Amino acid sequence: MIDIRVDTDYSGNSINLDDAIKELYNRVRYLEEENFIIEEICHAPERTLECFYYNGRLASVCRERLATKAGVCTKARCYKSPRLEEIARHFAQSVAVPMIFNLQFMENSKGKPVVTDVNLRTAGGMGLSYAAGWDEVSAFAMVLLGYTEEDVFSTLPETIPEADGDKAIGGCLPGKNRVG
Prior knowledge:
Elements: E1 3-5, E2 14-16, H1 17-28, E3 43-54, E4 57-69, E5 72-79, H2 82-94, E6 100-107, E7 113-119, H3 126-131, H4 136-144, H5 149-153, E8 172-174
Parallel strand pairs: 5-8
Antiparallel strand pairs: 1-2, 3-4, 3-6, 4-5, 6-7
C-alpha cells in the first residue's frame, strides 16, 4: 500500500493508491473496450517525420514544430533524425504504406520518442520541408515517369543545409548539426 500526502493539505487528507486503483477499476470495468482510450502522457517537442518509401528504401526529413496555426505547422526546425527514421523504417516494413506518408512524434515520460499520429498522406506542412530542400513531390513524379531509383532519391537530400544565422528559409529553420 502506498499513501501520498500533499504537503499543503493541513487537513490530514491523503490519497491511497491502492484504493484509487480499485475505484478506477470499478468505474471502468463495465465499459466496453471501444468506449474509452488510454493514452500515454507525452511532452514536447512535437515532430513530424516526412517519409518517402520506394522499393524498400526510406528517406525522411524531420520538422520540429516551432509555431502552428489551426493545427498546421507554420514555422519549424528541419533536420535529419536517424533515430526517428529507424522507427519509420520499421513501421514501413511492417505495414503497407504509400510512397509518401508521415509520422508524428512526441516524447514519453522517459524521454523516448513515441508515435502519436500516423498519416498515410502528405504532411500539411510539407511546404516548409520543401523550402529546406526536401522535394518528395518531385520524387513521386519521377517514379510515375519511370526514372531510376537513384534519380528519384536524388531529390531527397541526405543532409539539410544550415540556415544563414537564424534566418528562416520559407518559415523553416534548417537544424544546425542536429541529430535526432
